[in-house]
């Protein structure tokens, strides 16, 4: 079922169209720790793309590779960027929609209780 799902979807890896274009015109330039594979066009190196290992979520692209994909840096991240410093934290993926997402105080899904009404609010009641 895995290959059939990729025939009609784009959110869980490369679609058939992307795979064909990548095979015909792409040149692999690197891989990251998450298993994502990065490509550039053989004839036009400014055209760059990534094939995700799993769901297509751009927050899973490390900052250095993100800079390369957007053309902010021309060289590959391993050559263009300094090594990671000891105080730098690992980048986190987008946590929206997960139990680890940020919940502000008073949020219905947050740990804190909402403050009680101050008395200047009158709830709407249907007639």
UniProtKB/TrEMBL annotation:
Q: Read off the Pfam families from this record.
A: NDUFA12 (PF05071)
Q: Per the record's keyword annotation, is NADP included, yes or no? A: no
Q: Which InterPro entries match?
A: NDUFA12
Biological processes annotated in GO: response to oxidative stress
Compositional bias annotation for Polar residues: 89-99
Annotated spans, Disordered? 81-127
Could you tell me the keywords of this UniProt record? Answer: Ubiquinone
GO cellular component terms, A-Z: respiratory chain complex I
Protein name (database record): NADH:ubiquinone oxidoreductase subunit NDUFA12
Q: Which organism does this sequence originate in?
A: Sphingomonas xanthus
């Amino acid at each position: 079922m895995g290959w059939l799902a990729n025939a009609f979807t784009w959110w869980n890896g490369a679609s058939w169209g992307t795979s064909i274009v990548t095979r015909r015109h792409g040149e692999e330039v690197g891989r990251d720790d998450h298993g994502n594979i990065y490509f550039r066009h053989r004839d036009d190196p400014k055209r760059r793309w990534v094939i995700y290992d799993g769901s297509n979520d751009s927050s899973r692209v490390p900052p250095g590779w993100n800079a390369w994909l957007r053309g902010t840096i021309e060289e590959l991240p391993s050559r263009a960027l300094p090594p990671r410093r000891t105080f730098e934290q690992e980048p986190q993926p987008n946590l929206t929609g997960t139990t680890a997402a940020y919940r502000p105080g008073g949020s219905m899904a947050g740990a804190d209780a909402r403050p009680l009404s101050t008395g200047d609010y009158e709830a709407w009641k249907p007639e």
